[in-house]
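Note to self: keep these together.
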Amino acid sequence: MQTTATEAKNRFGYFCAKAKSEPVFIEKDGRLDSVIVSFDTFQALQKAQPPVSFEERKRAFQEKYKDWIAEQNAHHEAHGLWCAGLVAWPGEA
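Structure:
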C-alpha cells in the first residue's frame, strides 16, 4: 500500500492498522520517503540484522570514503580552514 505524507498524517490510525497486514509506503514530495510496518515486522528485521559495533561502523566508513577523506585532509593542509580569517580567535584583535 502507498499513500502521501499528508494522507498518512490525516488518517494515521487507519494506516497503522493497515501496517499490521502489509507495509505502508509513505510518499513525500513525489518520492518514497518512509515505511510504516507492524511492530512484529520491525522486530523480525532487527533480529535478521546482526548488531554492528561503533568501531566496525567507523572502520567501514573510513574504508569506503578513504579517498574523499584524503582529499579533504590534503585540501585542509594546503588551504587551512574555510573560515580562517573570518572569525577572530581569542586574543586576536
